Amino acid sequence: MSLDWIYYAISWILLTWHSAWDAIGVPAAAVLGTNWSWILAIVFLVVTVRVILFPVFVKQIKSQRAMQALQPKVKELQEKHKGDRETLQKEMMELYRKEKANPLMGCLPMFLQIPVFLGLFHVLRRLDPAKDAKTLYGWTAEQFDSASSATIFTAPIAGKFGSTADELARLGANGTTVKVIAGILVLVMMGTTYLTSRQMILKTGWAEDPQQRMVQRLMLYGIPLSLLVSGSIFPIGVIIYWVTNNLFTLGQQQWVLRKFPPLVTNKGATGNKPATAGRGPVQPAKTGGFLNRNKPAAQVPAKPAAPKVAGPKPGAKPANPKKGPAKRQG
User: Fold this and answer.
1) If the chain, 330 residues long, is cut into consecutive pieces of 10 residues, what is the mean pLDDT of each piece?
2) Are 250 and 196 within 8 A, CB to CB?
3) Which ranges in the chain belong to alpha helices (H)?
4) What is the DSSP letter of 132?
5) How far apart are CA 39 and CA 55, in angstroms?
């Protein structure tokens, strides 16, 4: 399947934002060794994609809330089918189907951004002055040459940590500078990737479902560590995209988690039993509103307590002594 439509779409968004910054008056020449019009074009490529994917992000949050609400039932199934993994998986899939919860929905926004990432990777990898097909994917030769010479702190955005000497020579770049800038950006990319996963897990907690917990661990540790290796082949412009995307995710998650906090299971003093254990029946909390945010539970009126009657004080005479003391039988 041809991915040209992705390359054309990414190029169109990138070039549109670059033209917009040029029209606003952002200098075309490098300032502090950086061509800001191209850097801002990459940053606002992220903004454009995230705005388009915002409805999917809302569905992701709804799915996470649904999965969290199902955790008690999941735990019951795990206790019921302990040692029978096949039956447990069937029962859990049936539970998810019945409750219309999708465990994979939490990863959907990330999966949908993969084509964008691959498209930008392909487009920026082509920024080589030696290329002949400069007008591919809707570029003009002038735009291609401008992007090929674009830099961030004197390191070309088309360069990468693993650039060969020939590639650096064609880009007119210093190898040490490229490695330092690319290395710093790769570390920032790893750190922000870790923080985005950690932020969500700290707010929602570790999943009871082993599969979900495995996915959480993969997101938290596996992906950031994999970037240490794969980051060496990413053009600097792609790393800028990834870091910007992570920062956008951190801000968006913080806003959503603060405005629509996750469900919280109240626990007793021991932390093992719910705080409501041993009490009488309580009216269930009503849910509704955006993202099924909980509303306060209806309060059950307490029964009036019976009035207390004070007992007689020690040594006091009876209040109404109608009978005298009983005579002792001889």
Assistant:
1) 87 96 88 94 94 83 76 83 83 81 71 88 89 90 93 94 92 94 95 88 72 80 89 93 93 80 51 40 43 49 54 54 48
2) yes
3) 4-24, 36-52, 54-69, 71-80, 85-99, 108-125, 141-148, 165-171, 175-204, 210-217, 223-230, 236-259
4) S
5) 27
